[in-house]
Fold:
Amino acid sequence: MKIIETKLPGCVVIEPQVFGDSRGAFYESWNRQRFADAGIDFDVVQSNVSTSTRGVLRGLHYQWPNPQGKLVSVLEGEVYDVAVDIRRGSPTFGQWAAAVLTEENRRHFWIPEGFAHGFCVLSERATFTYLCTAAYDREADAGIRWDDPQVGVDWPISKPLLSAKDEKAPLLADVAEDRLPLFED
Structure:
């Protein structure tokens, strides 16, 4: 497997080794030891799958307290996947990184705890998977605006289909300090 660094320390794209022939293809989507050897060591506590159609944007979501790290990938379709550093005191606070995840490239994106996450669907339909480091906690559920001008994510769509929750998400600057994780060296 190949690890591709992003501009956000800790957020990496993982390219698995794919074995294919005329019958199809095989790849390891998760191997605890191989990921640990690459510096991504976590217990899978919850696994989620979502399906969405073209133009849907989900995010930018996080949990605090009780943060979740997420290893995400696409089983069907194509998405533009984004991580935003929301750790107070981080040298990259408010900065973002993105990766295009497709059923063809089979890439994974590791988003550690302390980052907000979101994606938009570029294909007609997408099936998206998440391996999470913590269970969903309704009380800790939070988000920031997908189009926060201070964050400045360069989304490849201009008029996404949003949930009511995502339409009402606050700007990062308006989130109370105690609702954001603290950067730790």
Q: What stands out?
A: Residues 2-179 form a domain with the Jelly Rolls fold (CATH 2.60.120.10).
